[in-house]
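Hey, quick one: can you model this chain's 3D structure?
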Amino acid sequence: MPAPRCLWCTDPPLEEIAVLRWRGANPEVAEDKERMTVALCRKHLERLRKAGQRGRETKGWMYKEGWW
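Sure thing. Here's the predicted structure for all 68 residues.
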């Protein structure tokens, strides 16, 4: 069985969190959005939390913590 890893790198995850993922500038008007639970390492978890409600862009997708 493979070891768990961070969504964006090969480091082991620190925590699993709920995120909203979408394309475009505004999640309220985005048609392509998805709510999911992801495992993130310490580095990426801190970056996502620092981005706050505006979200963080990674590989063409915007992410923000929480289901809302």
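One thing worth noting: The first strand starts at residue 15 and ends at 22.
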